[in-house]
Amino acid sequence: MKMRFTPIILFIARACVSVFLSGCAFGLQPLPDTVQEQLNDAVDQGMDGAIVCINRPEDIQLYAAGWKNREDQIPADPHALFKIASISKLYIAAATTRLVADEKLSLDKTLVEYIPEVSGRVEFSDQITLKMMLQHRSGILDYGFEPEIDGETFDDYLSFAARIYDKPAVFKPNKKYRYSNSNYLLLGEIMDRTLGYSHHTYIRDELLTPLGLTNTYNVPSEVDMEEVMSGYLKGWEPDVKDWEFPLPGGSMIATAEDVSIFLRALIDGTIFSPEEQVIYTSVYPYEHTGWLPGYTSIARYHPDIDAVVVQFVNTSGKEIYWLELKRLYKRIVRILEMKN
Of the N and C termini of the chain, which has fewer Cβ atoms inside 10 Å? Predict the structure, then answer.
């Protein structure tokens, strides 16, 4: 397959793992009475558009403010599709869990056993296990921090992964934790080889369809892009919705409601057998954030109010920091707690 990327890919992964330090324009304001008022305040302070989904056992509530498309003045739609970025890793981890339970994959087998071509190219590939990759304990370099090679066209996942070849590991396997998108790029390749077909198809058939998630897609090519919320970078006027990112662990598109249903199903065991639940719990958390140019997202479960809260904001850049986005999220959760 041919994949084409824009130069923006160099800092996609960097933003996923960086901790930004900034003030918060609305952080010191009094807490409003409703989630809708809080979203309206966030838009007033510079976020282009926002969607929030509150998933409780008894109902699902959706909120939106700002713009779905700023240029055409189309209001934010709570049912709009959104690039969920690294929240995609929850689906990769769940699919891997099922393959492990079915004994098609093993948590203890090494990277080089699954992908022999990386022998001598990825340091410690004979010691890095599947479990370490799932847990970001492999020490493999994050491709987002490495220079591009040979332009922007790549034939497959491994040709893209070549940018991390022949370079020292960040640390020895299983010695530390460090988030690396390269782990999930390689997991996508491992699943494709094991299955003999695309892991996207497996995720759709094994995870999405049984849950009725008809508004979740693996890659942008599956989607009518008119249905996707526009994305905006501060200091860059055009919509960046068409910038591509078809790599495993960051490529999925979904509605906030679908993400909330999937996360609740992960937590309450709807999607897993007891054996699968134990495996998943041992390898990955039940929450995630996501970042792509123009798209920021948070999905978490809050047991004290028995609610999954999903937040989408279609603005990113140097003036919109993770601290600010987290504060917005925390304020929304506080409003829910006060009303619980």
Answer: N
pLDDT (tens digit per residue) in 83-140: 999 999 999 999 999 999 999 999 999 999 999 999 999 999 999 999 999 999 999 9
Distances (CA, A) of 78 to 2, 55, 64, 68: 33, 13, 5, 9
pLDDT at 59 over 80: yes
98/266 Cα distance (integer angstroms): 12
pLDDT of residue 320: 56
Per-residue pLDDT tens for 227-260?
A: 999 999 987 888 999 988 889 999 999 999 999 9
Tokens of 108: 């203890």
The predicted structure's pLDDT at residue 26: 58
Q: Which of 8, 284, 239, 263 is nearest to 135 (CA)?
A: 284
DSSP 141: P
- Cα–Cα distance for residue pair 155/53, rounded to 1 Å: 37
- As a whole number of angstroms, the distance between CA 211 and CA 133 comes to 27
25 pLDDT band, cuts 50/70/90, is low
Q: 3-state secondary structure string, 28-97? A: CCCCCCCHHHHHHHHHHCCCCEEEEEEECCCCEEEEEEEEEECCCCEECCCCCEEECHHHHHHHHHHHHH
Residue reference for tokens 């920021």: 296
d(CA 127, CA 139): 11
Residue 56 neighbours by CB distance under 10 Å: 16
18, 22, 28, 33: CA torsion to nearest 10: -40
Helix axes 274-283, 88-101, angle to 10 degrees: 130
Can you tell me whether residue 126 is helix, strand or coil? Answer: coil
d(CA 145, CA 279): 31
Domain 11-339 bears CATH identifier 3.40.710.10: yes
Enumerate residues 6+ apart whose C-beta is below 8 A from 313.
Answer: 42, 47, 48, 49, 50, 295, 296, 297, 320, 325, 328
